[in-house]
Amino acid sequence: MTQDLGRRTFLTATGAMATMAAIGTPAYATEDARDAATADEYVDVQLLNITDLHGYLHGSSVITGAAGTRYTVGGVGHLAAHLNRLRDGHQNSIFFGPGDMFSGWEFDAESVADESTVEALNRMDFRFSSAGNHEFDKSPAFLTAHMERGIPFPEVGWDDEFVDSTGRRFRGARFRYYSANVVWSATGRTVVPPYNIEWVDAGGGRRLPIGFIHLTAFGAETMPASFQPALRTLDEVETVNRYAALLKRRGVNAIILSMHDGAVAGSDFNSGSDPSGPAYDLAHQVSPDVDAIVTGHWHCRFNMMVPDPNGVPRPFVEAGYNGQLINEINLRLDRRTGKVVRELTVSTNHANTQDVTPNPELQEVADYWLDFATKRGQTAIGRVTAPFTRTRNTAGESTMGDLAADWAYWSGRQPIDPTNNGNAYPNVPADLALIAIAPRVGQGVVGGDLVSTASDGAVTLAQAFKAVGYGDPVVTATVAGQQIHDTLEQQWTTGTDGKIVFAPFAVSRNVRYTYDASGPVGDRVDPADVLIDGKPLDVARKYRLATMAYTFVQGDGYPALATFDRPVRHPRDFENFVKYVRAQKVLTPAPLERVTAKNAAFAPRAIEVPAPSDEPRTGNNLNYGSFHIPC
User: Fold this and answer.
1) What residues does the Calcineurin-like phosphoesterase domain cover (predicted)?
2) Is residue 280 a contact partner of residue 306, using CB atoms and an 8 Å limit?
3) How many CB atoms lie within 10 A of CB 567?
4) Model confidence over 502-553: pLDDT tens digits?
5) Which three-class secondary structure state does DSSP give residue 143?
6) Which of 172, 146, 148 is nearest to 159 (CA)?
7) Of 332, 188, 271, 376, nearest to 20 (Cα)?
């Protein structure tokens, strides 16, 4: 079957299906899209997107393309140079992203509240973004009030509102965030607008609309970093279909889905093989009115065409992370109706290679913030009288672990700042804290020792920032005394080889407990030997426990804490630990006497889970906030 499109004849969707298996570089909706550059009777629209930048203004990684060719990529200086090249000659070019533009693991971005990221995106004429899960890593108010509008809180020049590369204080983003499926639990209203409409020049004084629907990964409110009890996420397919119908009623006939959820589809960044994942499942289900699907969140790289429910191909793409790729989708719009001529759609993933001269303006921005953060990191914020280290005694206790537990206990007893507006319950102070210093699963929140290199014992911002944290908040929640007991028991498990594995918790300064090292796994801790403020643990009583969100949502592998009630989120770990060190002023390691092992001489030696390494934490292999499968 054929259809006349302007001056030539093209395959319709039925004929196009034969080409679906041939995913090349670039991806074409049909073979006729290969010569679409001559189709000047249509309105050309160029969509450019990056995803999961996570504040990486510098950075370098290697990705694989066709035939195993490897490319060294990264850096906003190179990104801006490639963007300028791609935009050249395109009257209608729109640059956007499907989320996680800020909030990640780079000290030079996180220590300046990602204002560096916003400045870089502003300079590149970034138009808008979906809200990713990491955009909620601080609070909804931080996203909407500070990042979008530049409102400072709480302390100008310390927490945010830093001087940018032009010498001005932060004024907020010149772009906006959107999400159709993140809503306030109490009202059902979206936290940010659900969609936006962009207008493109159709010539002759006419403009045509393009609608962008935005999604955040389902369940983002219960992910550890973006744990926000006052929010909930709506079903993705139902949400997209509802807003696609709304846009059609408004006369918008070109619709793009920008979603912060993803898939995996092979190693070649400009093709797709054996695709799977939530975004891929969604791509087969959402309304045929959606003309392209741009994904993120999984840090994967693919470029392919996937049929909609009517069998018509549409782009399905993801552009990696940390500025590795720029995805380009070229659309042709019917001048009369504004509909996308889907048979002519072309999509290409472009590597952000470092073999080009960096854009000097963006390179200057990146270098300025790296220097700024390095100098800021040398600021003394407190003092230690002796080193805090992760070296554990035979009972599993360490001075660094005790310090982390004391910080969590302190955090869980602080009042909630009004800007931390993602909570649904009143703040009830913590009764105790437990911190997994060598968890059964994943990596612990303790990232390093806290050791001063100064003669007076001074500790710098950078030292404290890197000693504790991976972007996860402390959460206080109500649990039963029985759960606390069971959690302590779950420090020991029997491995597949029959040997006992020990994955210890640190306990706060108001807790003392003794365990029987010779007892069987699951029966080593007597509740009577667990003292909280000097009183035995009451297994029938409720307690307010402070620990990491990652532990409550089962990222650490202690199932006794899988159920909890009335959670309250406190600030993120590295920022909050810095605040703790500043508040304490002087820190002195306490004797290791909180945990006692009896009958240790008669017990089989347990294999301890090793302490975390000092390797840098990156979003590629330690994305605590996403629970995705890194590519």
Assistant:
1) 48-300
2) yes
3) 18
4) 999 999 999 999 999 999 999 999 999 999 999 999 999 999 999 999 999 9
5) helix
6) 146
7) 271
